[in-house]
Amino acid sequence: MSSTPPPIRPLLADAQWLAHRYDPGHDAFHFRSVARALHAAAPFLTDEHLGEDAPLVLRRADAMAAAPAAAPIHFLFHSAYCCSTLLAAAFDAPGVAMGLKEPVLLNDLIGWRHRGGRGPDVARVLDESLRLLARPFAPGEAVVVKPSNIVNPLIPAIMGLRPQARALLLHAPLDAYLASIARKGMWGRLWVRDLFGKLLREGMLAPLGIAPDQYLGLTDIQVAAAGWLAQQHQFQALARQFGARVATLDSETLVARPQEALAALARLFGLTLDEGGIAAIVDGPVFARDAKNGAAFAPGQRAQDARRGIDLHGEEVAKVAHWARVLADNAGIAMTLPNPLSG
Q1: How many other CB atoms sit within 10 Å of the CB of residue 35?
Q2: Strand 56-59's sheet: what is its strand order?
Q3: How much of the chain exceeds pLDDT 70, in percent?
Q4: Which of 292, 290, 295 is nearest to 48 (CA)?
Q5: Which residues contact 230 (CB under 8 A, 6 or more apart)?
Q6: Which of 6, 20, 56, 239 could form a disulfide with 339 if both were Cys (CB 3.0 to 4.6 A apart)?
Q7: Residue range(s) defining the domain that contains residue 289
Q8: What DSSP character marks residue 47?
Q9: Is residue 296 part of a domain?
Q10: At residue 116, what are phi and psi to the nearest 5 degrees?
Q11: In whole angstroms, how far apart are CA 61 and each of 3, 172, 288?
């Protein structure tokens, strides 16, 4: 006997069925059943954190024919190691918004483009993917998506496809970013080299003026600085291009003044979060634990960790930061971005 497949329309009306992957070879979306509690607990929406249940696979045409109307959608774009996961978790606010932390679906589209996907085809599926992601758990909620930073080359397309969307461009100050990479050891250094290769493929390193024959001579921390500069250059251009639709924020300001930052971001996104709701988020578990691994943070631990990175790698970080600022001056890259998030 064959089982009857579930009706697609009510299934896609349920946000528990997360649009998880896109397979261009079969032109199909993969959906995973992800309860809201798992959204809150998982640092990223990857298979590692979602378990091993088999996905529900739907042809793209069938999925889009059954997809409900999209809810309001906004974005937390970032340049990594800047408290972006923490901020996305803060928007798990039932009745107001839900946050999506690095949905792999968007990574698939940038990977498809790198493998030769045609621009119009990628744009069409990107538009449909944004519609599938904009399905909140409760009526009246907005969806706040924090893509992986490897998706950043698609930001102009995303903002163009969603003219009502607003976005935050979140980054760490240069010295803090370099110290964070340094103290993560080998894995942090491998990660920045992988990012460097992706930025190179996108042409985002060209404004820095580093000759290709110099790439292999760069230290790991110089590679990290070059990646930071390339993303800072992009964020600067995006802030100018999209004006009031985009605000910028650095992680040090977020950590120092979280209630002010959340209030201003709620206003940018048009969310109804009052002072009491914001205070509950800031004083609750989201800001009291490491967003990546769930470990509890002691008071002042974030600042202590940052200082430890500077203490251990201060000389290297200082020299590379000076080198990076010379590159920035030559390329017209601002250390402080325009359109700061404010009330």
Answers
A1: 12
A2: 17-23, 28-33, 56-59
A3: 91
A4: 292
A5: 199, 204, 205, 207, 208
A6: 239
A7: 73-331
A8: H
A9: yes
A10: 105, 10
A11: 22, 40, 43
pLDDT at 5 > cutoff 80:
no
Residue 251 belongs to some domain of the structure: yes
Instruction: Report in angstroms the alpha-carbon separations of 278 from 93, 168, 262, 275.
Output: 10, 18, 7, 5
Which residues does 210 contact at the CB level (< 8 Å), separation at least 6? 218, 226, 327
Position 306 in a domain: yes
**Residue 98 pairs with which residues in a beta bridge?**
143
- How would you list the strands of the sheet with 246-250, edge to edge? 97-101, 142-146, 73-78, 167-171, 246-250
- In angstroms, the CA 291 to CA 25 distance is 34
- Range name among 95-99, 267-271, 293-297 with the lowest pLDDT average: 293-297
- CATH, residue 132: 3.40.50
Tens-digit pLDDT profile for residues 94-145: 999 999 999 999 999 999 999 999 999 999 999 999 999 999 999 999 999 9
**For the packed helices 301-331 and 220-242, what is the interaxial angle rounded to 10 degrees?**
80
* pLDDT above 60: residue 2: no
CA 331 to each of CA 196, 268, 289: distance values in angstroms, whole numbers, following the listed order? 18, 30, 38
Inside any domain, residue 62 = no
Domains: count for the chain: 1
Q: How confident is the model at residue 292 (pLDDT cuts 50, 70, 90)?
A: low
User: Cα separation of 292 and 107, whole Å?
Assistant: 19
Q: Residue 119: name the closest of 74, 153, 81, 78 by CA.
A: 153
Of these ranges, 183-187, 220-224, 300-304, the one predicted with the greatest mean pLDDT is: 220-224
Mean pLDDT, the chain, rounded, equals 92
- Which is nearest to 335 in space by CA: 113, 186, 177? 177
